[in-house]
Amino acid sequence: MNIDTKYHGTVAVNEQDIVHFPHGLPGFADEKRFVLLPLADTPFVILQSVQTPALGFVLIEPFSYFPTYEFELDEATVEQLDIESERDVAVYVILTVADPFHETTANLQAPVVINARKRFGKQVILTNTTYKTKHRLFPEKVAT
In the 3-class helix/strand/coil scheme, how is 5-54 assigned residue by residue? Predict the structure, then answer.
């Protein structure tokens, strides 16, 4: 099937590549079907709505940028996403892309967790954590 996208124009996607978010995303409860589209020549991917072309979130896999990033999923989320093994899980965080780009931030408080094998996803809101919604992706430059 072909879908119109925010960053890639019209692209062909396979039905089996669609990630289902049974409860949508916070603020987008009606958006339940997304695809992950790599952003060429970058470590970024776009979480693109299948039904709304203008809705695409820039994501990264956080562990390369935040090596100590870790959290535990609650049992309800594990059940909801039908996770049987850690190998099934893909974790991304949503970026707020800034101008200038070096001021871009990552939302570590609300990771996007996907069961890559069964294609279920959820944005998990972490509680009782020191993570915030805006962590600088790149270290601040020190003035010399």
Answer: CCCCCEEECCHHHCEECCCCECCECCCCEEEEEECCCCCCEEEEECCCCC
